[in-house]
Each structure stands twice: as structure tokens, then as C-alpha cells.
Write a structure and sequence with these properties.
- There is one protein chain.
- The mean pLDDT is about 90.
- Helix 1 runs antiparallel to helix 2.
- The protein is about 45% helix and about 30% strand.
- It has a three-stranded antiparallel β-sheet with strand order 1-3-2, with helices on one face.
Length: about 80
């Protein structure tokens, strides 16, 4: 049976890059940096993973999602103060 490899790009904010990288390294997920966006403050990482590694990808995506949610809350708080 052939192993199916899935490729996906993650837009990783620089602020959580180390946490996401730790998840990828701990789970031996093949990855490469394919781009950067200095204005948005993120790095694009292409990951290649097998079905058994999917949970780790979800963990990395959760870290990114949580970061964005926290940023939105901070923006809302700043708007209320103005």
C-alpha cells in the first residue's frame, strides 16, 4: 500500500513561529519556508505529512488560529479605548 503525502501551506505569524516549528520538528514533519510577508508579519511554510501526522498539523493550525483570535481581541480592546 502506497503512503499518501498531503501538502499544505501554513501562514505562520512570526510571533508563534517557534511554537509551530517545535510541533513540526517533534512530529518529524517535512517542511520548507516558501515565502515571507514582512508587512503582514508572517512566514509561509509548506508542510508535507502523512495521515498519521494530521493531528500535529491541526495542533500547528490551532496555534496560528489562537494567535489571530488574540490579535483580534487586542484590536477590539484598543478600539474601545479610543
Amino acid at each position: 500500500m502506497q503512503t499518501v503525502i498531503t501538502k499544505r501551506e501554513l501562514q505562520v505569524p512570526v510571533a508563534v513561529l517557534i511554537r509551530v516549528a517545535d510541533v513540526l520538528l517533534e512530529n518529524d514533519i517535512t517542511n520548507s519556508i516558501t515565502g515571507t510577508d514582512e508587512d503582514e508579519g508572517h512566514i509561509t511554510i509548506e508542510v508535507e505529512y502523512e495521515k498519521e501526522q494530521r493531528e500535529a498539523i491541526h495542533e500547528a493550525e490551532d496555534i496560528i488560529s489562537d494567535y489571530h483570535e488574540d490579535e483580534e481581541e487586542d484590536d477590539d480592546d484598543e478600539e474601545e479605548e479610543d
